[in-house]
Amino acid sequence: MISDVVAGAGFQLDAAPLLSRSTVDRRETLRDTPDGGAELWSAGRVVLVDARGRTQIGPDSRLVVHPAREFGERPAPNAVLLGAEGEISYWALRSEHDGAQDDWRDLRTGGGLLNDTDAGLFTTAVGLLGWHDSARYCAVCGAATTRVRAGWARRCTGCDREEYPRTDPAVICLVHDGADHVLLARQPVWPPERYSVLAGFVEAGESLEACVSREIAEEVGVAVADVRYLGSQPWPFPRSLMLGFAAIADRSAPLTPADGEIEDARWVHRDTVRAALKSEGGPVDGLRLPPGVSIAYRMIKGWATWND
Q: Signal peptide span per the entry (predicted)?
């Protein structure tokens, strides 16, 4: 039975998830300008992203951006408008970069290095360009689609249907016992000793809270209570939005990891989690925490350090 004393039940994320940071105004009203954004383009900057979702990050931990005019006097046909800050507009283009340089990094390895402006630009660029790569044909009639609205929609050349960027909602939930233990699990494909909180995609016709209960039951076989929202983070791998929750479960209930999906699940004491946080990626008692760029890390740290 879940304890009536819910220690730490009010914990929050320790900080904003690193990929949720953004300062750029998306300028939705400017996506339909008659000149295709030519005025914005003239003073614009371009973020280049390769097919593996990587961009160039300089030694100052800033995105390497290029004057838009290097790519023509008008917006390049495949450019997408990320937004504007002051008088400067930001765009993204797919690059043919071959991966030879070490300063090209993806969001997992480079997102946490960036400031708020650059993190928002890079995250949006990866998600939006990835959607364009997979939306070249109409889902209704199969005809080719073209970019419209400064890259924020595609229009079918056959039936004239417009399609907009897709985001797949996924819940991620930190389950604790209301006292000093958190439930962590690992997938077999993860690096050795890596453990994290549980997550899964929202199904059609399902509420977020119902998805939390279903996913926890499916993955480790326990029931949860007191489901509450913590925060969210875009996770464009390829197009997820991670919606963070906390819930409470009975630590005496048997754990039944889902065959083929969860290699191991265990309750971990708060002191062990704190030690793993201090180790900065090293293992503690067979436990490595998820990388700091993930919302999972922010959730675990928020729980472990609550009321410190």
A: none
